[in-house]
Every structure is written in structure tokens, then in C-alpha cells.
Amino acid sequence: MNTAHTATEFIEQLLQKSISQRVSDLHFEPQSEGFRIRARIDNHLYLFPSPSNNCSGEIITRLKILADLNIAEKRLPQDGQFNWFYDEKSYSIRIATLPTLYGEKAVLRLINNLQQPELNKLGFQPVHLVLLKKYLTSPQGMILVTGPTGSGKTLTLYSCLQYLNKDNHNINSVEDPIELPLDGINQTQISEKAGITFATILRALLRQDPDVIMVGEIRDQHTAEIAIKAAQTGHLVLSTLHTNSTRSTLMRLHNLGIAEDLIYSCVNLIISQRLVRCLCQHCKTRLPDKQTVHLRDKVICLPHWQANGCQYCFSGYIGRTAIYDCLELAKQKIPSPFALFSSGIELIKQGITSLEEVYQVVGDIE
Questions:
Q1: If we measure between CA atoms, which residue out of 73, 48, 71, 44 comes closest to residue 60?
Q2: Which residues, 6+ apart, have CB-to-CB distance to 239 below 8 Å?
Q3: Which Gene3D superfamilies match (predicted)?
Q4: What is the strand order of the sheet 267-279 is part of?
Q5: Given this model, what pLDDT does residue 56 score?
Q6: Angle at 176 (CA atoms; ends 174, 177), nearest 5 degrees
Q7: What domains are there in the chain, each with its CATH number?
């Protein structure tokens, strides 16, 4: 990386390295002297080599030029996007700038435009996959995907849309922003500055003869009410909520002013999910001892996997997969506080992830 003599060379080398190492976000952080470069890989931040002094001052300017941002405006945050081609693949790169004490900070989000989301490859347990497909083929109702930021909710929604993407379905989405262009899907991006909100577009979509509507996120009462109305009137609605469990999702809908009888009559399925890192299959080792977990009134013995780190992964983990909790509201069961952890246990048994990783993502339940 230190061979770069210009900002253009540095950015080119950095993006190539980032793509090859599965970086999702790049942080360009001005310091009192020079820049700190950090990369997020599988939800963990790692320090990358900094640029040489002769090009560090031009890096943010070059990034803003690529994204067609105002290079003279350094006092206000700006958002933009540009396309990058590497190894015969197209990547959509979003940039967000922010003024800080030592200058402008920038964060890049790297998105593979050729990535094709597939429902069968998301990591659902067979029983959950059957349940999801059952309600995806329902002519009306709502499916909610929930979890914190960065838990893979958008990928799950896109995979559902791809599963439904057939010529006999009119599928429409309203998103902020559009993460991945999907052929055959009518995607609309909101713009708060122009007055194009989720509620505005959602209301307009109801006049577009839709079969399926995807709402990127239910953020307020107005959007929630229109989405529920759509689910009531012969449309399949898919959306997300920023909640941490199926139980808290029910509370959130209630707080948004949705009556309990409407929740149970319109919402078919709530999916709560998290992303856990996968053990590197090249270097993981199984230790001779067992690990025990106290779950409900049971003591569960699990294989003890150790993440070592090698030339393929560098950290003992490579890639991520999801763990899920699915609540079918028609059954009116009480949501289990252990469901996500139980999903993680299944992955530990299969040697896909470790108990330490599940604890880190889900939390200690003991």
C-alpha cells in the first residue's frame, strides 16, 4: 500500500485490497497528523496501512470527485455514490462525509452489484425455511424482519423478493437507499429533502396494482398504518423494524399505535435475526473438552471449537451466516427469549461457529 505516490493510486490499491478481503466498510479518519484507515470485515474493525504524507491530504477530495460531491463544501455532511469495477465485477460504493476536528472524515460502504441473494443460502433451519416460504406464497399479510443495524435484514428481504420474482407478480419496493438493483422489481428510493417519504411512496404504490410491496423500514406511525392497511387489502407486505427480538417487535407495533387485533390478523410472521462469524474451515480445531450451556432447565454439552487464524482468514473466522427466531402469530405462542441462542447452538453443533461468537452476538443468557 505504501507504494502509492498519489491519492488516486492509494485509493485504487486500497479498494482492490478491500474487495479481496471482503471489507464491507472503509473508514478514512483524519488525525492531527495524517490519516487512520480502518476496515470493517465480518463486523469487526481492523487497522489498515495509512497513506504516505505526500498523498494523504488529497484522499477525501479524490473520493468526493468520484462521487460527484461538492469538494468546496467541508462544513456539512454529504452523501454520494460511485461505481467501481474490479476483477470483472461491478461494485456500488456509497460515501458519507462528516466534518471533524482535524478535517473531513469519510466512510465507504462497498456493495457487490452482481451479488444474487438466494433464500436457500441464508442459513435458515429447515423448519424456519418451510415456514417462511409458506407465508411468502400467501396472497396477503405482512412479514417483518427485525434486528439491530448490520444484522442482515436487507439481504433477507432481497432474498424474499428474488424468491417471489416471477412474471406473474407485480413487485414494488420503497427503500432508503436502494442497496442492490434487482431486475424485475420496481424499486423506488425515498428523498426526505424532496418530500418523498416512505409513507408518500407507500400510499402511491397502492395505486400501482401491486401484488407484493417491500418497505425498507417502518419508522413511524403513518408508515405503519399504511403498511397494515396494505396487508389487510390483498397485498403481501415485507418490511423491517429495528427491534432486538420478536417480543420487542410486538411492543414496538403497539407503541406505533397498531391495535393488538390488527397485529395478530395482519402480521403473519416475525423474523428476528443476527449475523455470526463462521469458523475458518482451514484452521479451526476441535478441542478435546466440551463446553456446557444452561438453557431453560437443561444442560447442553457442545463441541469446543477454537478459532486460530491462518493465511486464508487471518482471524480464525471467514464470512458470516445468520441465526434466526421465527414467530408465527397465527399460533399465538409466547415468544421465547432463548430462540436466537438455540439457533446459534445448532450452528455450533455443525462446526460452523463457536460458542464464544454466539455469546458475543446474542449475549450471555445464563
A1: 71
A2: 142, 143, 144, 145, 157, 214, 215, 216, 217, 218, 227
A3: 3.30.450.90, P-loop containing nucleotide triphosphate hydrolases
A4: 186-189, 171-175, 212-215, 236-241, 141-146, 267-279, 317-328
A5: 77
A6: 110
A7: 7-112 (3.30.450.90), 119-279+286-362 (3.40.50.300)
Instruction: State the cell numbers at 89.
Output: 465485477
pLDDT at site 3: 56
**CA-to-CA separations, 191 to 126, 178, 199, 216, 336, in angstroms, rounded:** 39, 11, 12, 13, 38
Q: For 90-148, how does the pLDDT look when each residue is reduced to its tens digit (9 = 90+)?
A: 999 999 999 999 999 999 999 988 777 899 999 999 999 999 999 999 999 999 999 99
**Mean pLDDT across the stretch 251-269?**
96
Residue 365 pLDDT grade (very low, low, confident, very high; cuts 50, 70, 90): low
Buried b (16+ CB within 10 A) or exposed e, 334-355: eeeeebbbbbbbebbeeebbbb
Q: Which among 338, 325, 333 is positioned nearest to 365, based on CA atoms?
A: 338
Q: How confident is the model at residue 1 (pLDDT cuts 50, 70, 90)?
A: very low
Cα–Cα distance measured from residue 29 to residue 12, given in angstroms and rounded to the nearest whole number? 18
* Residue 364 pLDDT greater than 80, yes or no: no
Task: Give me the pLDDT at residue 163, please.
Answer: 97
